[in-house]
Design a protein that fits this description.
17% of the residues lie in helices and 27% in strands. The chain is of the alpha+beta class and 427 residues long. It has two domains: 107 residues, Fumarylacetoacetase, N-terminal domain (SH3 type barrels); 300 residues, Fumarylacetoacetase-like, C-terminal domain (Fumarylacetoacetate hydrolase, domain 2, Alpha-Beta Complex). Strands 6, 7, 8, 13, 14, 16, 17 and 22 form an eight-stranded mixed β-sheet that branches.
Length: 427
């Protein structure tokens, strides 16, 4: 597990890109997250790094010789650190490379930001123990957590074809639903459309099929972290999920933020990973001294709900929940990689691992409306008087995330935004 802090993390560093030095900027020079962008009229994606309100075209700046993000993500940790050093050096105040870099800068507002890479496979985990407990309590009051939860990282394979970049809208899904007192199900629009506050973990270095990744090497296979909203149709889910789990309730849309905050950028925000007293230790293949010492990552998150009426009236929306990855997650990023591969599964560059809903222990830390409104029974009242049990057409949900701490410059993830459209009418 990488434990190296270097001069790229120095909180006193400043950039000649002035917007990167602003207080509260998500993208100071200490961050340097990777993503893909293109200009109007272009079809091919370029590789960029966010700096302030700009994006640096890495190929135009002479830092890479190709435009293939998934190829770049396969670099070794030393190669990744060397590229980060080169980008940081060129963007620092007083850099002699300013003349070469400046023509390669474009305003983020003037380009299209897409999915940060090509995603071949997507796995969604269930690491949020408070979410698992609360949802389980709604269905199994006396036994909310199933016996395997504290032993094995629970997950299922999702659908990469319906991953959406931040800002994209999607149609409310249709599916089978069955009322408790009905004799048979009906095909109907989802009436209990929900959000899931998650992080996305992107695989960089692949592992050959048949070769498990040990805990000590697991994070070397991770490239970076994004915000992730796994939209969920709770009424479809309730009818279809037994015996094989999520299907149409989950595969219609999931929204990904455009910037991958690299594992290197997250180094100053590592924390010890601990289990509550009395809980079992992980099995040996899911345990390591490094993971115990610094396997958790202090990522702070919030959920903003903006209704259609708010948007029309110029209202930015209400924060309805906040949470923290280190406090919400029962399993670490390294444990997810180790478990995913222990059976010989091959992971490839660009594969996405969703964390599962990252709810905290209190009501204001609920990462889903299912928890926040107790299954819609107690709707949340917004600042303009509107109420929501679940999402309505026209609602937008914005996820935000950031890291901050003593001795480190605050870095952010940008935003992960999606908007609900009515059911597709064939037009």
């Amino acid at each position: 597990m990488n434990t190296t802090l270097d001069d790229t993390h120095n909180p006193a560093l400043r950039s000649w890109v002035e917007s990167a030095n602003a207080d509260g900027s998500d993208f100071p020079i200490q961050n340097l997250p990777f993503g893909r962008f293109r200009q109007p009229g272009e079809t091919a994606w370029r590789i960029g790094v966010a700096i302030g309100d700009q994006v640096l075209d890495l190929r135009a700046a002479g830092l890479i010789a190709h435009g293939d993000m998934n190829r770049l993500m396969q670099a070794t940790p030393p190669e990744r650190r060397a590229l980060r050093q080169a980008i940081s050096a060129g963007l620092r105040e007083g850099s002699a490379q300013r003349a070469a870099f400046e023509p390669a800068l474009l305003a983020q507002a003037a380009v299209e930001l897409g999915l940060p890479c090509e995603v071949g496979d997507y796995t969604d985990f269930y690491v949020g123990i408070h979410h698992a407990t609360e949802v389980g309590r709604q269905f199994r009051p006396d036994n909310p957590l199933l016996p395997n939860y504290k032993w094995v990282p629970i997950g299922y394979h999702g659908r990469s074809s319906t991953l959406l970049p931040s800002g994209a809208a999607f149609h409310r899904p249709m599916g089978q639903v069955k009322a408790a007192d009905a004799a048979q199900p009906v095909l109907a629009p989802c009436a209990r459309l929900d959000i899931e506050l998650e992080l996305g973990l992107f695989i960089g270095q692949p592992n050959p099929q048949g070769q498990p990744v040990p805990m000590a090497e697991a994070e070397q296979h991770l490239f970076g972290v994004t915000l992730f909203n796994d939209w969920s149709a709770r009424d479809l889910q309730a009818w279809e999920y037994q015996p094989l789990g999520p299907f149409l309730a989950k595969n219609f849309a999931s929204t990904v933020s455009p910037w991958m905050v690299t594992m290197e950028a997250l180094e100053p925000f590592r924390q010890p990973f601990t289990r509550p007293a009395g809980d079992p230790d992980p099995l040996p293949y899911l345990d390591s001294p490094g993971n115990r010492a610094r396997g958790a990552i202090d990522v702070r998150m919030e959920v903003v709900l903006q209704t259609a009426r708010m948007a029309r009236e110029g209202h930015a929306g209400d924060v309805i929940a906040h949470s923290n990855f280190a406090e919400a997650a029962y399993w670490t990023a390294a444990q997810l990689v180790a478990h995913h591969t222990v059976n010989g599964c091959a992971l490839r560059a660009g594969d996405l691992l969703g964390s599962g809903t990252l709810s905290g222990a209190t009501k204001d830390q609920c990462g889903s409306l299912l928890e926040l409104t107790t299954g819609g029974k107690h709707p949340v009242t917004l600042s303009n008087g509107e109420q929501r049990g679940f999402l309505e057409d026209g609602d937008s949900v914005i996820l935000r995330g950031w890291c901050e701490g003593e001795g480190a410059r605050r870095i952010g993830f940008g935003e992960c935004r999606g908007t609900v459209l009515p059911v597709f009418d064939g037009a």
